[in-house]
Design a protein that fits this description.
Layout lengths: L10 H17 L11 H20 L4 H27 L5 H28 L31
């Protein structure tokens, strides 16, 4: 009997789940109690959304839906990064904790972008009814300055 491949075999989901576990176990407990309903809650929701959106997209049949949920995942990933950057600037987490989490986020980002490319190439469900809907990305003129460095507050 052959074992069916499932969600657990996706490296991007595995890394996203590991990131969520790390944040829950190491970061959230260290945040101040007065942040429980503010920053802590936002971080909890955004980091949980990362593996959850990958899972939801994985469970969809049409590749366009999978790609759509990956885009949502990417948004949650960047939201989590932003919340963690704020936590660092406010002195709630150390520079080392932030650096380690940033590396984890970068790994998930890289895997997620690769998974999006895979989904676009595979086009699962492309011949099914409703498959004519497409998601398009348009290049943007927005530039990010790679020379800007993080500073500790």
């Amino acid at each position: 009997m052959t074992e069916e491949k499932g969600l657990e075999t996706l490296k991007v989901w595995q890394k996203a789940m590991a990131l969520a576990v790390t944040v829950h176990q190491q970061i959230l407990p260290s945040l101040p109690p007065d942040e429980k309903w503010a920053l802590t809650a936002h971080i909890r929701r955004s980091v949980q959304s990362i593996p959850a959106n990958i899972a939801e997209g994985y469970g969809r049949y049409y590749y366009q839906e999978g790609v759509h949920y990956c885009y949502l995942t990417r948004g949650s990933l960047e939201e989590t990064y932003s919340h963690l950057a704020l936590a660092k600037k406010l002195g709630f987490i150390t520079a080392d904790e932030f650096t380690n989490l940033s590396g984890d986020i970068q790994d998930v980002r890289r895997l997620l972008n690769g998974y999006i490319s895979f989904l676009k190439k595979s086009k699962r469900g492309r011949n099914e009814p409703g498959a004519v809907l497409q998601i398009q990305e348009f290049p943007t003129a927005y530039e990010i300055d790679p020379d800007v460095e993080e500073t500790n507050p």
